[in-house]
Amino acid sequence: MIIKRPTVVINANPSSNGFLSVATFLPITRWRDVISSFRMSNRVEAQLKKSPGIVAYSLAVDPLPRHFWTYSIWEDRASMSAFNAAEPHATAVRRFADWAGAGAAFVEWDSAPGLDWSEAFERLKQPSFYYSGRP
Q1: Which phi and psi angles does 72 have, rounded to 5°?
Q2: Mean pLDDT score, 119-123
């Protein structure tokens, strides 16, 4: 059962006319990695709340199979790229291969400012990036 956290709106009146949505899917391979990924997730969420250009975000989880999703909306690609390159998100990306199982995915698309989980789940079926697992 997928549990979606309520949307966190950071900027209710964004200045952009076009928005960039980003969704990720992260299946955690081992139970022992869930706690460390949660700790990192909390640090990344704190970074996200202070990041210029963030409009809104949400998280979702299906606990038993250890499936996690993120969904964020940005005013522009430059803001999203700056967030990705900054800490602690940059460290989270490096740790990704330690935690992720096959099927981890990332997708981005031009969007409206509101989150639509149905669209995110559908778009993740044809991701921009798909992780096939460790060799």
Answers
A1: -135, 155
A2: 97
CA–CA gap between residue 111 and residue 56 (Å, rounded): 12
The band of 15, judged by pLDDT with boundaries at 50, 70 and 90, is: confident
Rounded to whole angstroms, the Cα distance separating 115 from 51 reads: 18
Q: For helices 89-99 and 77-85, give the axis angle rounded to 10 degrees.
A: 70
pTM: 0.92
- What pLDDT is attached to residue 125? 95
Structural domains of the chain, with CATH: 18-131 (3.30.70.100)
Predicted pLDDT at 131:
79
